[in-house]
Amino acid sequence: SVGATAPGVDPPVLTMLQAGAQVSWEIDLFGRQRALVEAAQARTDGAQALAQLARVSLVADVADTYYGLRLCQALLDTTAQDAASRAETARLAAISRDAGFTAPATAALADASAADARARTAQQRAACDAQRKVLVALTGLPEPDLVQKLAEVRANQAPAALFSIVEMPADTLRQRPDVWAAEREVLAARAEVGAADAARWPALSLAGSIGALRLRAGGVSQDFSTWSFGPLQLALPLFDGGRIAAGQAAARGRYDEAVANYQAKVRQ
Predict the structure, then answer these.
(1) Confidence band of 47 (pLDDT split at 50, 70, 90)
(2) Are 76 and 218 within 8 A, CB to CB?
(3) What mean pLDDT is predicted for residues 98-118?
(4) Please, are residues 118 and 79 in contact by the beta-carbon 8 Å criterion?
(5) Phi, then psi, of 206 in degrees rounded to 5
(6) What are the tens digits of pLDDT across the range 26-41?
(7) How far apart, in Å, are the Cα atoms of 203 and each of 1, 110, 199, 257, 260?
(8) H-type helices in the chain, by residue range?
(9) Which helix (H) or strand (E) holds 208?
C-alpha cells in the first residue's frame, strides 16, 4: 500500500492497494515436457522401491540376528552344562586325591579343565550379550522388554521344507526392490532421451498476467482489475553451438549406463 498526505492533513488522502501475478504456459507440441514428467515419475517409483529395499533389509537383519542369538543361547546352555560336568569331575577328583586314591597331578588337571570350561562359558555369555545388543539396536525396543519377549517365546527347530523349487520364472527377479529401482531408472533415462530429442524442435509458449488495483481516497473506494494474454512466443533452435546435440549424446550415455546397471543387477 502507498499513502500520500497533503500539507497540513494528518490522514492520507490516497491509498492504493495493488497485487498481480504472471504465468507462462508452454504448449507441449513435441512431448518434451511429457517426457520429463515421465522421467520424474519413474525416478519417484525407483526411490520408493529403494525405500522398500531398506525395510526388507532391516527385516532380514532382524531375523538373522534373532536366530543367531537363539543359536548363541543354545551353545551357552551346552557350554554351561559342560562346565557344570567338569566342575563336578574336579570336585570328585579332589575328594579322591584327599583320600589317597588319585594322584595330585590328576586332580590338578581336573581343576584346570573346570577352569577352562568356566572361561569358555563366560566368553559364550559375552557373545550372547553382544548379539542381544545388536538386536536391541535393530528393533529399537528397550532391552528389558526385548529380554522379556525372548524369555516368553522359545525358538523351535524349523521343520523340513515340504516342497522344493526346481526353477522359477525370470520375471520373478523384477519383484526385487533393487532390480525394480534399476528398471525405473532405465525408463527415466529413456524418457530423458525423448526430451533431449524433442529439444531440437520449435517450442511454443503463451504468457499471461492478471492484476488487481484498489484506490481509496476521501472515503471513496474504486476497484480496477487488469488481465492480459500473450504474446504467443515461438522459439526456433537454429544456432546453438552444438548444445542440443551434446544434450542428446549425454542423455543417450545416461541411458546406456542405466541399461548396463540394470543388467548387472539382474545378473547379481
Answers:
(1) very high
(2) no
(3) 92
(4) no
(5) -130, 130
(6) 888 888 889 999 999 9
(7) 39, 92, 8, 29, 33
(8) 32-99, 104-139, 143-152, 177-198, 243-267
(9) strand 203-217
Q: Which of 171, 189, 160 is nearest to 35 (CA)?
A: 189
Question: Peptide bond preceding 231: is omega within 30 degrees of 0, i.e. cis?
Answer: yes
Which tens digits make up the pLDDT trace of 131-144? 999 999 999 999 99
pLDDT at site 66: 92
Question: Is the entire prediction scored with pTM above 0.90?
Answer: no
For residue 228, the tally of other CB atoms under 10 A from its CB is 11
Q: What is the chain's alpha carbon radius of gyration, rounded to the nearest angstrom?
A: 39
SS (H, E, C) 95-143: HHHHHCCCCHHHHHHHHHHHHHHHHHHHHHHHHHHHHHHHHHHHHCCCH
What is the Cα–Cα distance from 47 to 36, expressed in whole angstroms? 17
Which grid coordinates are listed for 238? 537454429
